[in-house]
Amino acid sequence: MIKGFKDFLLRGNVVDLAVAVVIGAAFTAVVTSFTTSFLEPLIGLVGGGGVDGGVFEVDRQKFTWGSFVNQLITFVLTAAVVYFVVVTPMKRLMERRAAGEEPGPAAPTQVELLVEIRDLLRAQQQKKDPLAPHHSQARGGPLHEGR
Description:
Elements: H1 2-9, H2 12-47, E1 56-58, E2 61-63, H3 65-100, H4 110-128, H5 135-138
Antiparallel strand pairs: 1-2
Region (Disordered): 125-147
Main location: membrane
Family: Belongs to the MscL family.
């Protein structure tokens, strides 16, 4: 039951959803605060005009290119942090998990199991009476008929 729940949680689509909703929303608030507090004033200074910089007018229409640049930087920073903090470690975890699930040695066949059981029974029989002949050897043995 726990393994099934673990498989469900570690499936790619559930992890992507968690990244998009939880981490993305939380970190976007931090990046938005950073860009509003530091980048908007810088863009204003570069664009000329202080805080109102990054705006130009054509026929009394304002084009706020500084706001667009600010949102673009916010998006790039958010995407970079989500990728390097969440996606990359999750990808490594999935690769390690996949490497650990490689199939082990093949299960023995029925014939191999029967031979092993026969050998164990013979060993057990010899411990009880080491001088007595084995039934299977005395009569030709039912296990040896097919060989």
